[in-house]
Amino acid sequence: MSDDTLLDRALIRLEEAASHLQIDPDVIEKLKYPRETTKTRLMIRMDDGSRKSFLAWRCRYDDTRGPTKGGIRFHPDASIEEVETLAFWMTFKCAVMNLPYGGGKGAVRVDPHQLSKSEVERLSRAYVQAFARIIGPDRDIPAPDVYTNAMIMGWMADEYGQIVGQVSPAVITGKPIALGGSLGRNDATARGGFYLVRHLARELGLDRAHTVAIQGFGNAGQFYALLSAADGNKIVAVSDSTGAIHRPEGLDVTRLVAGKEAGRKVADMAAELGAKAIDPAALIAVEADLLVPAALEDMIDGDNAGSIKARVVLELANGPVTPDADKILAQRGVTVLPDILANAGGVTVSYFEWVQNRQGYYWDLDEIHQRLLKIVEREGRAIWSIAAERKVSMRSAAYIHALGRLATAIEAHGTQPFFVS
Ligand code: NAD
Description:
This protein has helices spanning 6-18, 25-31, 80-96, 117-131, 150-164, 188-204, 219-230, 253-261, 323-331, 339-342, 345-359, 365-390, 394-411, 416-420; strands at residues 36-45, 51-62, 68-75, 102-109, 140-144, 211-215, 234-239, 244-246, 276-278, 290-293, 312-314, 335-337. By secondary structure, it is of the alpha/beta class. It has two domains: 33-179, Rossmann fold, CATH 3.40.50.10860; 183-421, NAD(P)-binding Rossmann-like Domain (Rossmann fold), CATH 3.40.50.720. α6 (188-204) packs across α7 (219-230) and α6 crosses α12 (365-390). The N and C termini lie far apart (46 Å). Bound molecules: nicotinamide-adenine-dinucleotide.
């Protein structure tokens, strides 16, 4: 792999999309850099009485189309570069789905598994104290990301409410239902991907009963497996960070999910499920019609992309396929349904949560699903048409679609030709 940074590689997508559109250079100048990234150190009291500090960031990448939106990640490898790249992706993801948001992201460099529950609560509240002037229901709206969850969002919303002196649930999404969370948020990312595959199945050449391999068996991977299996498809292989299992006749997904919920690793369940334990690195190469990366960034690169047998890749993870791998997959006729479309069900239902918080009126699950379905099918179809008309990949088409919307908004403020004519 080259030494380009994650953000450099993300910006390649922007330049590629711009080459297909008549875009004013002002637009690219605005989207090439994050608008603001704030860095701080969060000091908290540890359970043993000592004080400890943790690096933390919040990036508001671009807010032309609305308040910025994006999760907060607690991870020992978090970096400013990763935060800014994820915020860039959020800018495009919100534009792809036509949500009235810009893109943002936040992170704390910490391994939350090394902290007690009370320490995690103090850290979460410290994050909001540090960034209270940056976030807000009309400014920047965080959500959960890797190693943060609904309870953490609840603490953060509570802390924000105490600072501003009002209950303000719309400041954060992904909250517990009892604290203003939305129904349907837990499986929204997987459900959005599932609706997309089902809607485009004929065009993608996927049968009603296709086979699926899933890399990463957390929130996104498990819900995808449940939805897809319930629709008549066969989940033939899954992996987590410690191992992988393969069963060409299909895995019992319900038992697998129950095992994961009980804290077990997928490889430890191989024998009881009649499956074979395989090397996790071999998962992407198993015989399956659809490959679903649902783990981390950069898992499919120039070195391993050639081994993929699936005809379709659904990116539930953010950034799992590198630009090098994209080229190889395109040459081999593999269709990649890109992250900014494929996993955008999560931010779409987060948007529904924000809308419900602001109107103080809550929708039932059926309404959430119907609204999500409509948006996924509308934007998925539009991107499929752009790809067919311009003979580009679905990724390029998604960026072209989003960039068109961002450019229209940026140009509405006036660009060079307006001011010099
Ligand atoms: P999660 O932490 O619940 O699950 C991640 C899974 O990946 C775990 O099972 C972990 O064991 C596995 N994993 C880690 N390293 C692996 C490796 N090397 N090989 C195989 N598996 C590995 O996280 P999640 O919420 O499911 O998120 C997964 C991806 O989806 C991330 O890229 C995230 O940014 C993206 N995503 C999630 C949401 C959401 O709503 N959950 C929304 C949009 C995007």
